[in-house]
Amino acid sequence: MKDSNRKAVSRRMFIAGAVTTALALMLAVVTISTPERVRLTGFCAPAAHIAALITGAPCTVEADCYRLRGPAFDLAVVPACAAADFCSLLAGFLSLLMFWRRWPLVSQLAVLPLAWIITVTANAVRLVSCWHADRWACVVLPPALGPGIHLMTGIATFLLVLTAVFWGMTRWRMTDELTKSRRTP
Question: Does a structural domain hold residue 142?
Fold first, then answer.
């Protein structure tokens, strides 16, 4: 590798690393200082409406939560269900993946909207999954294990999403690189 090429790669790595670090720090501060009302309207409301679409239950707005009610179905989506910290984690993860896969620096502009969309969708799936797991756990297990089952279901859902995002981001870029290498003699 030529010396000028090494300097260009080094400069690009420094800029991308600085952007990733700044984004992660900014999101950590925002997540810690976000008021409950913002978490409720920015993260819980869309997730609750998507969960309502999945389950077919109506979504009603209450003073401090969104509630989905149906036959044998009562789910309250409170600010603790916001997954804003997962959004911060996902944004940093996406930024780092884009940096590692050598995507253009302009692609960093898509990190926040993409992280929010994935977080809200994953949170809606988590809400429905937790409701099903809680309903099953109430019948089969002692009530003391309910919160643990709820927590483990949420962790499993978000880990699955992180794995799918990693697979999708690396596969998308690898496929692109494979088609480019096939075109060049």
Answer: yes
84 by Cβ neighbours in 10 Å (0-12 / 13-18 / 19+) ranks as buried
pLDDT of residue 179: 52
Blockwise average pLDDT, block size 10, the chain, 185 residues:
65 71 69 68 88 89 87 82 85 82 77 91 93 84 86 93 89 55 51
Contact 47, 77 (CB under 8 A): yes
Tally of structural domains, the chain: 1
In a domain, 74, yes or no: no
Compute CA 66 distance to the chain's CA centroid, rounded to the nearest angstrom: 20
Q: How far is residue 131's CA from residue 72's CA, in Å, rounded to a whole number?
A: 11
